[in-house]
Specification:
Chain lengths: 326, 327, 329
């Protein structure tokens, strides 16, 4: 078995506030294999973006990584000084955010931004870097790339801008791309194109993707494995097809039932009562217990860790035996 | 978290009607606690608050606590003139903490009475500017078009002159219009009008901007769909939501109005000499600065600085505390 | 009592996006208009849900605002229960009409006045339409409405920011229902909500529709949601209706090439591996729409006629290729 590209162990992110310490992300364990697409799905406040940001060292103070470690190819990166972390971001981990304008400076031409990023990370001359940049824009499907590279970000449509961001994320040949809601701001028809481009380019370059999104549909289209997050913890993690078709955690099952489908028209959607708890009021025991249709006494007291009842699938729920069967 | 987060969708049916409880004061206090917290956390603001409160209380209670009555000719002794601070007059038994001025008036007492005039003019002028600016700003922001263009161009023109120049102009015009025998009694109101009129534009601008933002929000659309009258939409919906920034610039505007009043009085066009404000006192004092009687200028000037500074600091803090982005 | 409650005829709306007068004069520019809605006609039957679906720039929200009178049409008419709305609403008759329709917005936080308590927010329609109502009676009604949407009467004293997104949308629904309207325009009512909360709100809206016989115009970009909620669907592209059909018909047999493309773009959550065509191109800028059929640059079936001539809605679809029988099954 190959070594994971990225390992996250016991990652916990806390925010001290005047009302006490809030735990936004708690005890996250996950591995991303080289070339793998790991989806991370959850509703707002589930801590999915926070996890992505913690991995690349972008937690805004006063938030802090309280416990745990992040290893990139076996090397710890969560405790690196800021300038070393900055070198890793972009060079070894590329980033794609929801709003392309957080990655693109509106005052500079696309060519300047691409060339600068390429030359920061790779020992290339200006001309070579420019050539590479044009090639990248071609790859992400920007028509007439050689001419359009001298345009400013506002001269591109939303979808084209996100393509430029993908080019920017890939320009130093990173091992891992973290994509945080990359298609949320886009129309459905454009979303399909962007997912396709992202998936294809990463596959060609052997880059793994951590895809953070609230949209189960995007996950189903893109990811190999998926981690379902709830109230700052991983509820369930496993191969996409298994999780979608045979959810183990009652939250995942509820979530899947709540999504309206094109193929059928049910009179009522199945719904999970209530809403995700606020960080300041996460219930004792399993965070999902007040909303869970299969809640047991134990769920109200003990918080379940990630168990592996079936090889390759881990779930944080007391419904399953604590020891793996295999 | 609210307990209602757990409520499932209702089963259609007719539950026994229950009216919502009436709001309690406790909620209000809870709501304000964030502001209180940020106040407590800022020592500068706490000091500024107490300084401002002290000066305002001193001004309000001047007739009760002032050691002398500087405007009662019977209690004045010209021979007490120029008594230095913290000493007794050589001619009477009167003792002066901050010394006495050229006419033998107690400087501390004149400051107390002078702050009264300064604060009264400042408050009234700011109130006038707020009401006028807010009214015009709401009208301009909500209606847009011609009304907006006219109001805002007038504001632009006014803002391109120094406020003091406009106040002087209005003051001059008022002098010409008001009959001579009423000038003395009207002087303070003319001053309020002059300062108020010279400051409305910034309120109008701020309120117009905030109104244009609020106007586009869906809660206004919801009211418009119901056919709520535009004036009611402005007063009930938009006005409460634009008060925050008005409070901030109103506080800073108060400090400016106090300084403006002092400037006008210093120039001799402000309040009549029978009702000296801090500015008048400074004008009197500066004549004696170079002859060594520094206290006649120093103490009123320090009071003015303290007053303006503490009010300004309060305004600064209020701006940060009400800005959700900085929280 | 069946028959259309809402009849929209040849509705058009353009927006003036010209630069300011001075800039136009100095730079020698013409006035510039965007056709946000162009010649749109449809009818909505009583007790049914008519969905308008489209991507950005399709004009769906503009149509919503035209229907409820927040915008005035440039051309065309809107009839509500036989009475024209487009003439502008005034007087006592207008009050009676306004009472019968309401709107629910996308962002529930923006649609609730942050300085008002929930009781006052929900009571606003009652104050407007039932001025004679006693205070106590009004408060009872608010309590009843809060219970109806799954909140509790005690929530009335709170402010909107004290609620979660889903609860805020429940409050907005309670306000919409306060004056007992028959017709509600819902503009992306669940787009700002999480899936599990979306399911709650959609179920609630369906329950209320059944209980009170409500008629909805439901605006959304989400095809799955539209499929779940609606009886009739109109597909909009750049301000024009591309196709109108029953929900079942539209999803079973989409006719317009754009509808087909949209359906193909929806992520395949069932993971059936259904065959899908790749989506081509992007939505053109509404500032300079293509001539002829605005979809022609992205359409695999476009010919010269499509590039020249604007197709009109015939038998539920506006497409030359469909008319000429050039569409493969």
């Amino acid at each position: 078995m190959t070594e994971p590209l990225l390992s996250v162990r016991g990652l916990t992110v806390e925010f001290p506030t005047r009302h006490g310490i809030l735990t936004a992300v708690e005890d996250i364990d996950l591995d991303i294999m080289p070339g793998e697409v790991l989806g991370m799905v959850g509703e707002s406040g589930a801590g999915k973006s926070m996890t992505g940001n913690a991995i690349i060292g972008l937690i805004e103070p006063p938030g802090r990584i309280a416990r745990g470690e992040v290893l990139l190819k076996g090397q710890r990166i969560d405790n690196l000084p800021p300038d070393e972390m900055r070198a890793i971001r972009g060079r070894r981990i590329g980033m794609i955010f929801q709003d392309p304008l957080t990655s693109l400076n509106p005052l500079y031409r696309i060519s300047d931004q691409l060339v600068e990023t390429i030359r920061t990370h790779l020992p290339l001359s200006r001309d070579a870097a420019l050539k590479r940049a044009i090639g990248l824009l071609d790859d992400v499907g920007i028509p007439d790339a050689a001419r359009r590279i001298d345009d400013y970000p506002h001269q591109f449509s939303g979808g084209m801008r996100q393509r430029v961001v993908i080019a920017l994320a890939l320009c130093a040949e990173p091992d891992l791309v973290i994509a945080d809601e990359p298609t949320t701001a886009l129309d459905v028809s454009v979303q399909a194109q962007i997912i396709e481009v992202m998936k294809q380019l990463c596959a060609e370059r052997g880059a793994a993707i951590l895809l953070v999104t609230h949209d189960m549909g995007v996950i189903a289209e893109t990811a190999d494995r998926v981690a379902v997050m709830y109230a700052g913890r991983i509820a369930e993690i496993g191969p996409v097809r298994d999780v979608i078709k045979h959810a183990m955690h009652p939250y995942t099952a509820g979530l899947m039932g709540a999504i309206p489908r094109l193929g059928e028209n049910l009179d009522r959607l199945s719904q999970i009562p209530g809403a995700m708890p606020r960080l300041s009021a996460i219930p004792q025991g399993c965070a999902f217990n007040p909303r869970c249709p299969r809640v047991m006494d134990r769920c109200r007291v003990d918080r379940p860790g990630l168990l592996e009842p079936v090889p390759g699938r881990r779930v944080a729920c007391w419904l399953y035996p604590e020891e793996a069967q295999a | 978290m609210s307990s209602q987060d757990m409520t499932p969708a209702p089963a259609p049916g007719t539950p026994a009607p229950v009216a919502p409880p009436r709001p309690t004061g406790r909620l209000r206090r809870m709501l304000d606690s964030d502001i209180f917290y940020s106040w407590k956390r800022s020592p500068v603001t706490v000091i500024a608050t107490f300084t401002a409160l002290f000066l305002i209380l001193m001004a309000l209670m001047a007739p009760l606590i002032a050691p002398h009555d500087p405007f009662n000719p019977a209690s004045l002794n010209l021979m007490d003139g120029f008594t230095p601070p913290a000493s007794a007059s050589a001619f009477s038994d009167n003792w002066f903490l901050m010394g006495a001025d050229n006419q033998g008036r107690d400087v501390l007492s004149t400051i107390m009475y002078g702050s009264r005039v300064s604060l009264f003019v400042g408050f009234m002028a700011t109130l006038f500017a707020v009401v006028m600016g807010m009214g015009l700003g709401l009208a301009a922001g909500y209606n847009g078009g011609m009304i907006d263009a006219v109001i805002m161009r007038v504001a632009d023109i006014q803002l391109s002159f120094p406020a003091i120049l406009i106040a002087l102009l209005i003051f001059g015009v008022a002098r010409g219009v008001i009959p001579a025998n009423q000038q003395e009694s009207m002087a303070i109101w003319v001053l309020i009008l002059a300062i108020g009129l010279s400051n409305w534009a910034q309120f109008a601008r701020t309120v117009r901007g905030a109104t244009m933002v609020e106007r586009e929000k869906d809660y206004v659309a919801a009211a418009r769909i119901m056919g709520v009258h535009p004036v009611l939409i402005l007063l009930r919906h938009i006005l409460p939501n634009v008060l925050g920034p008005v409070l901030v610039i109103g506080t800073i505007g108060l400090a400016l109005a106090i300084i403006e009043e002092a400037t006008l009085s210093f120039l001799g066009v402000g309040v009549p000499p029978t009702q000296p404000s801090l500015g008048t006192l400074i004008r009197i004092g500066q004549q004696y600065l170079f002859s060594g009687e520094w206290w006649i200028l120093f103490f009123p000037a320090m009071t003015l600085i303290l007053l303006a500074l503490s009010v300004n600091l309060l305004g600064d803090w209020l701006r940060d505390a009400l800005n959700p982005k900085l929280r | 009592m069946s028959g259309p409650l809402l009849d929209v005829r040849n509705l058009s709306r353009r927006f003036d996006v010209s630069k300011p007068w001075l800039n136009r004069k100095i730079e020698g520019l013409e006035r510039l208009y965007v056709k946000a809605v162009d010649d749109v006609s449809f009818t909505v039957n009583r007790g049914e849900t008519f969905a308008l679906v489209g991507e950005s720039g399709s004009g769906k929200s503009t149509i919503a605002r035209l229907i409820v009178g927040l915008l005035k049409p440039t051309a065309g008419e809107i009839f509500f229960d036989g009475q024209s709305l487009a003439k502008g609403l005034n007087g006592a008759e207008a009050r009676r009409l306004r009472r019968r329709f309401q709107m629910i917005f996308q962002d529930p936080l923006a649609s609730l006045n942050p300085r008002w308590r929930v009781t006052d927010i929900i009571a606003e329609p009652l104050r407007v339409f039932e001025g004679g109502m006693a205070d106590r009676e009004r408060r009872l009604r608010v309590g009843e409405l809060l219970t109806l949407v799954g909140l509790s009467p005690e929530d009335g004293v709170k402010f909107p920011h004290q609620f979660s997104g889903g609860q805020r949308q429940r409050i907005a629904i309670a306000r919409a229902l306060a004056a007992r309207p028959e017709f509600i325009v819902c503009d992306e009512p669940t787009s700002a909500l999480d899936v599990s909360v979306q399911a709650q709100i959609l179920n609630l809206m369906k329950d209320l529709q059944r209980e009170f016989g409500l008629t909805y115009v439901f605006i959304s970009h989400n095809l799955q949601v539209v499929r779940h909620m609606s009886d009739q669907i109109g597909v909009l592209y750049l301000g024009r209706l591309a196709e109108v059909n029953s929900a079942a018909g539209l999803f079973a047999a989409p006719r317009h090439p754009y509808t087909r493309m949209l359906l193909d773009a929806v992520p395949d959550i069932e993971m059936t591996g259904r065959g899908r065509r790749k989506v081509e191109g992007e939505i053109p800028s509404p500032l300079s729409p293509p001539p002829g059929c605005t979809f022609h640059p992205r359409c695999p079936l476009a010919n010269d006629r499509c590039r020249r001539e604007v197709p009109h809605l015939r038998a539920g679809v506006a497409c030359h290729a469909v008319e000429e029988g050039r569409v493969p099954a």
